[in-house]
Amino acid sequence: MPQFTLGWEEWLSLPDLDLPAIRAKVDTGAKTSALHAFAIEPFGSAERPMVRFAIHPDPQDTGLEIICSAPLKDRREITSSNGETEMRFVIETDVTMGGRTWPIEVTLTDRGGMAYRMLLGRSALLPEMIVAPAQRLQQPQLSYDVYHASLRQRPHRRALRLAILTREAENYSTRRLIEAAEARGHTMEVIDTSRCYMNIRAIGGEVHYDGRPLPHYDAVIPRIGASITSYGTAVVRQFESLGTYCLAGSEGITVSRDKLHAHQVLARHRIGMPTTAFARSPKDSGNVIAVVGGAPLVLKLLESTQGKGVVLAETKKAAESVISAFQGLKADFLVQSFVKEAAGEDIRCLVVGGKVVAAMRRRGKPDDFRSNLHQGGTAEPVRISKHEREAAIKAARAMRLDLAGVDLLRGADGPKVLEVNSSPGLEGIERVSRKDIAGLIVAHIEAKVAPRPPRPRSRTRRDPPEASGLAAEAPEM
């Protein structure tokens, strides 16, 4: 093969790390290549260890920060030329220079004062490469301007550190989200919501678990059970206060779980829903029944889930009896008009990131007006109308939920939203739609937590690193 000449200084790129331009020192006196990074943090499982780190690719622009992650290959003790030893994480990544791309091993070290963000050691050189120590920039030159180019809008899909807040680690939805995340190169940790505890303070607050503070997660997927809504939303709020992206925000979970509050929010946004009434005094029972148009009507406990605590009263007398029973138990409930034309069917629309990604029609058992799958209902694919799609998206947006299961009825005068679920199950909708819903959720998270484009550079003049006053690189043996 023809010889490939390198100078003591060259430009290169590390495409796997989303670093399109790095000025490196080529040093045959050092065996190991090194990338000068900071905030170096291992994560992931023992079977698939990862490492996350940050780097300022331009030594003269500390405002330019790129977050990288890569599979962790090893951890080794490295000795520099001045005799200092250091344990470093080792990764393997592709390097591109002069039209050639090849894999190299790179160690990670925090040396922010160095003039070069990368040292290319002799073990990284190909056999046909010759280093001319008296020359520099023998290969095509790059520029740090590539980081600021307006055309560079597509973020690199780095490995993310994700967590699911749930008390059901083995259910279908949890397993599918873990599978989808790992298939896209991310790691997902399952955290029992009820075992979290919080250190609440103005600066440096934390969420603790199993006697230790939890690390920073790129995103958290809350799947909070109805029985621990209050405590679960407190944990989610703590993550939010730490700057972690939560797929379902604490406000959205709280509002969607309170059926009265949820319907008030839907009404405020002028979203179609069954006529709804609420009262506390037994003296108002007759008036409440009249408000919704009389029997038949539906009565719902405010915190009912999966069709539990929902009763159809077919006559006024039956409605009064149920109302009396609920009031005797001091239980708050709603009274809603019964949408006859729905005929025991509803539509579940799954909204991810402001888009309806799947929909199914659910039918109740012949003797049950409830269509919930947990109550023995059946489901089938359905094509929804433009108005139904818009209603579902509006409802999810009103609840401030990036992931929502919106249940609606097909009324004579248009779609009517019954409920917005902040942690919808995935089993039924994936089976019926035959779509990778979990994968779509993870893709949405990737888009939300991707690094922002770097800020515009204010400097107009570039100084070469040898004139910058930064420390010179010490070779490593």
Automatic annotation (TrEMBL):
The keyword Cytoplasm does not apply. One of its GO terms (biological process) is SOS response. Residues 448-477 are annotated as: Disordered. It holds the Pfam family RimK. It comes from the Bacteria. PROSITE patterns: ATP_GRASP (PS50975). Keywords: ATP-binding, Ligase, Magnesium, Manganese, Metal-binding, Nucleotide-binding, Protein biosynthesis. Residues 263-446 form the ATP-grasp domain. One of its GO terms (molecular function) is ribosomal S6-glutamic acid ligase activity. Its cofactor is Mg(2+); Mn(2+). InterPro entries: Asp_endopeptidase, ATP-grasp, ATP-grasp_RimK-type, ATP_grasp_subdomain_1, Peptidase_aspartic_dom_sf, Rimk_N, Rp_bS6_RimK/Lys_biosynth_LsyX. GO terms for cellular component: cytoplasm. In the C-terminal section; belongs to the RimK family. This is Probable alpha-L-glutamate ligase. It comes from Salipiger marinus. The lineage of its organism: Bacteria, Pseudomonadati, Pseudomonadota, Alphaproteobacteria, Rhodobacterales.
